[in-house]
Amino acid sequence: MFKNHFSAILGIAAVFAVAAMPADAADDIEVAAQVCSACHGEHGEPQDKTTPIIWGQQQSYGVKQLHDYKSGDRANPIMSPMAEGIAQEDLRRMAAYFATKSWPAKQASHAPASPPNGIAICWACHQKNLEGGLSGPRLAGQSYEYLLASMRSFADGERTNNSDMPQLMKQLTENEREMIAHYLSAL
């Protein structure tokens, strides 16, 4: 519970930090993006496992998520105010900045020998290697907690900023979602 409150406090502090920046520094995407490290990690590894890795994530996905937070199509108590503070013309530049970063290296782990039931529905958009592409973000290597929370929010209808995901996630059982999240996080 403390971690959730701590993350919220960090996010609110980050909003104020961006607002307090001088105008010329706020125009510099690299400087502005440093605020993101409070939650997403200084080297791309979030401290809170429910926070996604954004370093190395597809630019198209980053633009869409920032746009959706800004427009209200996706709600989050930390990200929505953060995105509101980014000028519309800077959304693409911010997403491009993170897309050029290297995906954080993970310690070696063992993925299950064979993909779990239901994983095939992920391949169409997230590609066979699950490292994403134009139509979907990278899932391989995200944390189990983030992946499971995202799949549940789509299945429960809480997250609706993708027209296909709620229906796809409802087709899976809770156990299948858990198995897929374990598999993806180990990749």
Report what the structure shows:
With 187 residues, this protein is mainly alpha-helical. It folds into two domains: 98 residues, Orthogonal Bundle (Cytochrome Bc1 Complex, Chain D, domain 2), CATH 1.10.760.10; 67 residues, Orthogonal Bundle (Cytochrome Bc1 Complex, Chain D, domain 2), CATH 1.10.760. It is built from eleven helices and no strands. The longest helix is centred in the N-terminal third of the chain and has 19 residues. It is globular and about 45 Å long. The two termini are 28 Å apart. The N terminus is likely disordered.
Uncertain regions spanning at least 5 consecutive residues: 1-26
Number of helical elements: 11
Order of SSEs: HHHHHHHHHHH
Which term fits the overall shape? globular
The overall pLDDT average reads: 86
How many strands?
Answer: 0
Question: What is the level 1 CATH name of the largest domain?
Answer: Mainly Alpha
Count of domains: 2
CATH fourth-tier homologous superfamily of the largest domain: Cytochrome c-like domain
What's the end-to-end separation, in Å?
A: 28 Å
What profile does the largest beta sheet have?
Answer: none
What is the correct CATH architecture of the largest domain? Orthogonal Bundle
Q: Fraction of residues in helices? A: 40-55%
Class of secondary structure makeup: mainly alpha
CATH topology of the largest domain: Cytochrome Bc1 Complex, Chain D, domain 2
Approximately what portion of the residues adopt beta-strand conformation?
under 5%
Radius of gyration: 17 Å
